Amino acid sequence: MNSKFLHTASTRQPSATLSDTRIARRMRAGPAALVVYVLVIVYVSLTPFFGWRAAESFALFSWPKYWSVFDIGINVVAYAPLGALIAAMWRFRARRRSGLSTMSSTMPTAVDIEAWVISVLVATVLSFLLEYVQSFLPGRVSSLLDWIANSCGAMLGATAVLVPPGRAALARIEVWRQRYFVYGAETDWGLLLLVLWLFAQTNPAIPFFEAGNVINNAINSTQISPYAIDERPHPYDPLFLLPQAVAITFNVCGFSLFLSLLLHPANRVWISVLVIVVLGFVAKVSMAALLLKAPLLIAWMGPGTVIGLSAGFLLFTFFSQHSFRARAFSATLMVFAGALLTKMAGIYAAWSDTLRLFDWPYGQLLNFASLTRWIHEVWPLLAIIFLATLFVKHRLEH
């Protein structure tokens, strides 16, 4: 096994100033993170991707008749990470070519200015193109105000990572990453998957570690679904509960093993796994309180979820004692089996019925719900590819 991947961090003390070589090696997943975020912006901007027709008018250079503070804030927040990502990557690469430390306080101002201009220019052009394409979709409206808000968001994001407090924050994040996660490009890819998983948990209409939506458990909410109560499976029906609990058990164990491959072995891996899962749980509860209708606040936490979480952690306790490669192999099987069983046990209601679960009058609900559901559905496939790659790459482990 590659000893650098597992043991390098345990033999050194993290510091706030990291060499440019180490930073550059950890930026291998940076372009992938940028591509993923751009795809997310494209998806949110152009969904639902049907009904294309010739544009009757191009309203990008006219002031919109209707707008809201919420929509402006969402457009600013959406492009802030994009500006920050581009600026950070440009700065890292520029400093690597110059041979100076990325976190150096004596870096030339021209490098920061160049990174800021490039990031804002790229984000502004991307926003302009997407606003233009929206004019060909009947369900979307091109807006000059959206373009301005997107550009301002990119400016804020780029500025945040280039000013001294921003650079200090990046250094602290890098120290934290070094302390709690193993060193290597593989870990960066895994952390990218972890961020996607946490984001998917913000959709409270998706049950925890399950497929389908909370209509599965909302037996008493007849106003939510057009199906009669006797036409839907009862959550305690063994034919429904058993495969659901087994699927969640596999999902929890597979996800926990996936995390154990990223976490530094010098720390308490079991506790770290539990903390991350609890963070996902808290995200689900918080967003349920914010977005779901009152009767459905805990509808996503069914009996199968409780049984599966408990059994999954017990199963993880057994498999966590195995070697790195054995855990990678077991995690691959668990994630595959869990994804397959949840698809078989999950019940998907019509999309319009799913949207009735929410109580959110401020807009952007369709984009949020569809994006998080899509990430939730594709995550097991990405995780299987990642885990299989780890298993093959570390075949020489002793």
Compact overview of the structure:
The chain has 14 helices and no strands.
Structure, described:
Helices cover 64% and strands 0% of the residues. It has 14 helices and no strands. Mean pLDDT is 79; it is low at 1-25 and 218-230. The protein is mainly α and 398 residues long. The N and C termini lie close together (6 Å). Helix 3 runs antiparallel to helix 4, helix 4 (69-98) crosses helix 6 and helix 12 runs antiparallel to helix 14.
The H/E string reads HHHHHHHHHHHHHH
* Total beta strand runs: 0
Taking pLDDT < 50 over at least 5 consecutive residues as the criterion, the unreliable ranges are 1-25, 218-230
Helical coverage, percent range: 55-70%
Q: Note the beta-strand portion.
A: under 5%
Mean pLDDT: 79
Cα-to-Cα separation, first versus last residue: 6 Å
Keywords:
398 residues, mainly alpha, disordered N terminus
List the helices and strands and how they pair.
Layout lengths: L2 H5 L12 H7 L3 H17 L22 H30 L10 H26 L9 H19 L1 H17 L4 H16 L37 H23 L8 H23 L11 H17 L4 H22 L5 H5 L9 H29 L5
